Amino acid sequence: MAYAVKYQHELYGSSLKPGDVLVSNHPIAGGTHLPDITVITPVFDTTTNQLIFYTASRGHHRDIGGFQGISGNANATELYQEGASIISFKLVSHGQFDEEGIRKILVDEPAQYPNCVGTASLHDDLSDLRAQVAANAKGSALIQGLFEEYGREVVQVTPKFYMDRIQENAEIAVRKFLKQTSEKLGGRALSAADSLDNGTRIRLEIRINPDGSATFDFTGTGSEVMGNNNAPKSICLSAIIYCLRCLINEDIPLNQGCLSSIEVINPEGSILNPSDQAAVYAGNTQTSQRVVDVILKAFEACAASQGCMNSVGFFGGRDREPGSGYKFAYGETICGGSGAGPGWDGSSAVHCHMTNTRISDVEIMEKRYPIVLRDFSLRRGSGGRGAYRGGDGVVRVIECREPLTFSMISERRVSQPYGMHGGHDGASGENLIVRRAEGGKRRVVSLGPRGLVRLESGEQFIIRTPGGGGWGAPVENAAS
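Structure tokens predicted for Hydantoinase B/oxoprolinase domain-containing protein:
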């Protein structure tokens, strides 16, 4: 988020006025993937009219158009195929919401490319953007209240007060952890590597200095890929912050101070620093998880969790709500097993690491969409065995009640979530299509890690998510 705000600040600078609100989602402007739209509001000193802060909110918008009418299309290979892209746009100017301008961006601009269309859910997109503007306004009011109560000198100007202190506390905590790690290592570097299911390698070497600074060097990581597993630089930085906060045994605030002592080497043109034309949807949902796996593996912190978000969406003709009559798009991420660690078992059926979404209630899904959820249960035994077991994944079976198009993007369908210190790997996941065949028979077809598929009424989509890796040798093998 910090890089998204910084980009807009450098672009507009002092030209912003009270009542202005900016919007952006492009990877070169600090974005993650295109559905994650960031709304940024400048905050001004009410007495001097000087720009003093920004408030920002980032929300995931399910439908922003795209290739074949599907945002997050599994077959996208270029950024333009993933929907509306916004480097910068003044959504609100002098207090006036520019509905026509943002409508053109969301509806008209994606449709200028071959086989692409704009959003079919403009009403939802506009409502969500207005909600983000309102959230920012609330944040701005709270900042103004802070200034009124304590004064600008205390909050912002005087060294080592409020804003400086919050970031400094985060930096101190990170440096303390890294100093302790450096002492244990005796100057030795940490390293780890892992692969995506397409074979792309992610390599990392961590060099920690005695003063608690460190270099995270991703040299040797594979090139930008023909597909949407590319991850913008912001994803890699988010993964590093997340892992450091997990490794530090202190409750520290989330802010840029976590990275103050960190240098990141991320070769240009790699899957973690791709070109500005690269498709990036799955970089946010899948590749981010592998970056976390590699970092935690380097620190030997715990076994791997399921390692993906199991992103599934389906799309159809008309909403089943009476009288609504608009095309619908539904998406969800599905839980799996988390990795075990030194002293704990992994958890089953949870989101872990770079995903934290709750799954939709079955009753709401079945009421709103033409599907029946035939099964949603634990995938028993999918967690890796060990002195501490990895958590189990889940089984989710979606049956169509009318023709639907499904898009599936996942990982760990080829590789398995690694165990550590003698613990067994977790089971890899599976994506299966159940087709109807002659004579009432069923034909089960593997979709692989990703794909776009049309299912007819009565056909099923089965998702079996990965289990987490185990930690330590299983008890029966301890003697050997």
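The first strand starts at residue 21 and ends at 24.
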